[in-house]
Amino acid sequence: MPKAVVVGSGPNGLAAAVRLAQYGIDVTVLEAADRLGGGARTTEKLVAGTLHDECSAVHPTAVLSPYLRELRLDRYGLRWRHPEVMLAHPLDDGTCGVLRRSVDETAAGLPAGDGQRWRQAYGPLAANLEATASDLLGPLLRWPSHPVHTARFGLRAVPPAALTRLLWRSPVTQSLFLGVAAHVMHDLRAPMSSSVAAMLISAGHRFGWPVAEGGSQAITDALAALLRDLGGKTVTGTRIKRSSELPDADVVVLDTSPSAAARIFEGHLPGRVHRAYRRWRHGPAAFKVDFAVRGDVPWSNADCGVAGTVHLGGDPDEVIRTARDVRRGRMPDAPFVLVGQQYLADPSRSAGDVHPIWAYAHVPHGYNGDATAAIVDQIERFAPGFKDKIVAFSAKKPADLMRGNENYVGGNILTGANDPFQLVFRPRLTPHPYDTGIPGVYLCSAATPPGAGVHGMSGYHAAGRALRHLGLAPAVQ
């Protein structure tokens, strides 16, 4: 029986392990931390009974993922829970952009004239997303299975977000769009900075922005349970620093950053690959604060009170300016803040009337200051009285995030900068982005296509390459 070792137990590592095990391969997953999951972990902290997601919290790409849907993880207890409203983006004048699962309901709630253009922009993308998901959640350097639909998506993805926003006239609609685009964590004036918004908005309209019941850890637990049923093994507390520390295996799959892959296989990688991995750039960071609050957040706008996610970035110009400053290494006085209210869809995360609030700000790469007060002030700006609701809080600087997950270099939770080149050619210029140049060794982290998100597709594709190497299956890519 062939043997495989997977280094790293994030969703991509576990997905790769599951796919290999489905073909009868003896798989062992090695995880440096004391728990599986990478960015999909949940911790009970602050107040007994409150569940806080460590990083990834809302999962439009997980319910979009063709592979995760194929695995039927509901058999292992995974349950998706949807909030009444997916996203709200309030402005200082009390108005609010609201993203609902229905394209028509979202369009109807936008200011006059904008709704029809929103429907025209994202209705067709959402309608065809299930068919094009495999194309979009894979390498871009290949001929798509659905070229017309994929090209239509590209028309929405390629322009700078600062230009795309001009499709709409109202600051409400422009801010709603730009807040989603800001997930790219790059300058919104750059080409392809509309790409993440195109994906998340269309995925939301087709599948929603759900949370996992019991926390994101439930996704990890379901994948790990399936892997065990297939005969796979997981080992925690095992950090691999050099390839000599790896057990004997026919194939190795790395759910690591390119720089970690270069370190582990120092002296074995082809020169061109080693140089590319060392040149891989990491973008802006996150500064995360978990809150336990008594009662609901006192939002000025009622839609925010029923939204699973709230974007706090102000008007369109402010969102663009903040993204530019962070990309340039300047910490804004009022940073862009993402707030997760997962308990609204999943009350099991709360302890009585004490609820977990998940929040993080976009900050410069490697930022070493304390953004806690700036995050609290930004929430207070749109929810006066929030400070009085706080029972306890816990902050994590970029360095803390990296200690918890070595893929988050400099606190960059996307495992790489989303500049135009790296969005297309991740992690290097090649038609086979999962190959390291060493036969039998593959990379599957978020530094490979399709990038960040709990979708498992990077692991799926990397496992496909490994299976081809073993002569067991054709590679998907």
From TrEMBL:
Residues 13-303 form the Amine oxidase domain. SUPFAM superfamilies: FAD/NAD(P)-binding domain. InterPro entries: Amino_oxidase (IPR002937), FAD/NAD-bd_sf (IPR036188). Interacts with COX5B; this interaction may contribute to localize PYROXD2 to the inner face of the inner mitochondrial membrane. Probable oxidoreductase that may play a role as regulator of mitochondrial function. This is Pyridine nucleotide-disulfide oxidoreductase domain-containing protein 2. It comes from Lentzea cavernae.
